[in-house]
Amino acid sequence: MRDYQKELEGRVKFIQGVLAQSGASGIVYGNSGGKDSALVGILCKKACDNTVGLVMPISTRNFDADRRDGLEVAEKFAIATRELGLAEVKEKFISTLENIIDVAPMAGANISPRLRMMTLYAVAASENRLVAGTGNRSEAYMGYFTKWGDGAHDFNPIADLTVTEIYEFLRFLGAPDAVLAKAPSAALFDGQTDEDEMGITYAKIDAYLLNGTAAEVDKALIESFHKKALHKLSPIITYTGN
Q: What's the pLDDT tens digit per position in 117-129?
């Protein structure tokens, strides 16, 4: 297990360094009510008092459990919070798109994290803030994030941590039980959970990433996800000449 007091000190120093180098005066992040946003919010607040979390409900799930959990974390750690509902914006956008295409289910689902990121950057640009990323190592390896959605950010203080380590860190910090007990979810649609959608548990993914141990069927699935995600994980393809 990591030394989480040392991890806390190092990550706070990292965030403060990024802010100083950029000239930004604050941080904004998406407060989804999940484990990753909870940890990012806590770390950013400890590094910079001028940290604000945006609660951006789109699906009905976000209006109840996730919203409540996000607000509980914010209250416990004194993180400023603003709420902006984006459900009507998404409905209008899809309605407009349907004038030219039939919007595929996954394309429609991915609009949600992209709308949230567009909102975060609008706030950041208006208030001289940086956008903090909330993706972890496990999700990144599996490609379980939306390109130009939750995969976009100015800096990410938890990108090297697996889901297992995220939970360990949160317990060390004294995060609310609601965040620690809930099933991880990207909230792409109502009732969605990460593990159900991927068909494998984070415990198995993390055992593979941290120790190299996995049943052959699990290893094959993990590597299949990773291979399909390489376009998300690689730099943008550009023409470089001969």
A: 999 999 999 999 9
In a domain? residue 239: no
Nearest to 54 by CA among 119, 148, 140: 119
Three-class DSSP category at 81: strand
- pLDDT at res. 196: 81
43, 169 contact by CB (below 8 A): no
Give the domain extent around 115. Answer: 4-13+22-232
Q: Hey, what are 58's tokens?
A: 């789109």
pLDDT in tens, 21-35: 999 999 999 999 999
Both tokens assigned to 9 = 């000190």
Distances (CA, A) of 87 to 53, 54, 159: 18, 15, 29
CATH number of the domain that 169 lies in? 3.40.50.620
Tell me the pTM. 0.92
